[in-house]
Amino acid sequence: MLVAGVDSSTQSCKIVIRDADTGAVVREGRAVHPPGTEVDPEAWWLALSTAVEDAGGLADVGAISVAGQQHGLVALDAGGKVIRPALLWNDTRSASAARDLVTEVGAAEYAARTGSVPVASFTCTKLRWLRDTEPENAERVAAVALPHDWLTWRLRGFGPGPTDRHGPDLDSLVTDRSEASGTGYWDPSTGEYDRDLLVRALGHDVVLPRVLGPGERAGTSPAGLVVGPGAGDNAGAALGLDLTAGDVVVSIGTSGTVFGVSPRPVVDATGTVAGFADATGSYLPLTATLNAARVLRSVADLLDVDDDALARLALEAEPGSGGIVLVPWFEGERTPNRPDARASLHGLSLASTTRANLARAAVEGMLCGLAAGLQAVREAGVRGQRIMLIGGAAQNDAVRLVAAQVFEAEVTVPEPEEYVARGAAAQAAWVLSGSRPRWVAPAHLRVEGSPHPGIQQQYRHYADRA
User: Fold this and answer.
1) Of 282, 284, 293, which is closest to residue 251 (Cα–Cα)?
2) How far is Cα 160 from Cα 138, in angstroms, rounded to an integer?
3) What is the value of pTM for the model shown?
4) CA 387, CA 405: separation in Å to the nearest integer?
5) How, if at all, do strands 61-68 and 74-76 pair?
6) By the 8 A CB rule, do 239 and 7 touch?
7) Which residues of the chain carry a pLDDT beneath 70?
C-alpha cells in the first residue's frame, strides 16, 4: 500500500509518495507558491493539484495527510468562501495587535492558558488586526482555519465551489493538536479551545476546526482516499525525524526554528519559547526566528556570489569574522520579539572589511540568533544533547562547521530529505494501519568542530544593544 505526505510550506508544495510498510520513497512532485506574506488560499489548492499531477497522481495511494505552515489566517464566511487573502505566519503587520492582546490579558495569563505568549505570527493577533483594520471583513467571519486545515477540508470534498462535492459545511473543518496550539486560543494542557480569548481577538465567536488526535482519520476524499489529521510543519518534521528526548532540531529554511520533544506542557511567560503540541500526543517547545536562510541569500547577493561561493568565502575567514558582527534582523524578528527591527552590521575596520569576513559574519549572525533559541529551549527543560541540522541551509559547508562552533554540542546533519512531507506520510500510514509506523531512521553525518564561545559573546554584545 502507498501513502502520500504533503508539505505545503511558505514557498512551495511538495508531495512524497511512500511505501506504507517501509517508508521507501516511490515518487514525488512539487509546485511553487506565490511570493509575499499574504496569499489567496486557492493558490495553495492549485499548487497541491499541480504537485499531485507532477507525482503521477493518487490512483494507487491509500491515504494522504497534509502538513503546512503554521499560524496563517484563513477566514471563511458563512458560505465557506475565503473572505480575504490569508495572512501568513511571517506577516508582521499584526505586531501592534499582539501588543494590545498581551497588555489586555497579561503575558503570564496567556502562557498559562495557551502555553504561549502571542506575537505577530500567531493567528489570534491576525484576527485582532482584522477586527481593528478591516471591521467589515471581521464581521463576516463565520469560521477560522489554518492553511493545513483548509487544504484538508478541500481534499475531503468540502468548499464553496461547483467542484466541491459536499458543499461548504463549516462544521466539517478539522485540525490537529500541533496546529491548534499555534493559534493563541487553544490550551495544550486541556485540549480545549479558549473561546474567551478567541472572542477577545475577533470580537465574536466562530466555528473552529475540531481537533483530531494522533492517528485519527479526518475522513475520505470523494474518490475514497483516506485523509489523515495533518500537522504544522515543525510537528511534521519532528514526526518525520522520529525525534526523541535529548534531540533538538535546528531547522534553517525561510524561517529558523529550534524545537525538541517534551513529555509535558511547557509554559514560558517571557514568550521566548512557544509551548506547542506535537503530532504524537506529546509537546513541542519551540523558538522561531524570522531571519534564517534568506540572511545568507541577501549577503550572497551583496557579494555577487552563489551559495557555494559564499560558503567558500566564509570558510576562508577565522572564527569571529575579524570582529565583524551581523545582527540579521532584516525583516524584524520574532525571537527576540522585535517586529520592527532591522539588521545592523558592527565592528567594521579597514582591516576587517573583507569579503570573507562579511560572508562568515552572515553565517555566524544567523546561527547565533538560533543559538539564543537553543538556550531558551534548554532552559524550558529540553536536554538538547544532540543538535540535528535540517533545511536547505544545512547542506552549506560553512553553516555546518560554524554550527558546531556556535552551539557547543554534538551537531549532526540527517541525510537530505523532505522531512515535513515524510512526517505527513507517516501520519497517513498511521491512520491506515492504526499504529504509528517505525520506518528506518535516516542516516546522520556528524559534524566535526571545536566550540568557540567568543562567537556568541561577541554577537550578544551587539544584539543586546540593538
Assistant:
1) 293
2) 19
3) 0.92
4) 12
5) unpaired
6) no
7) none
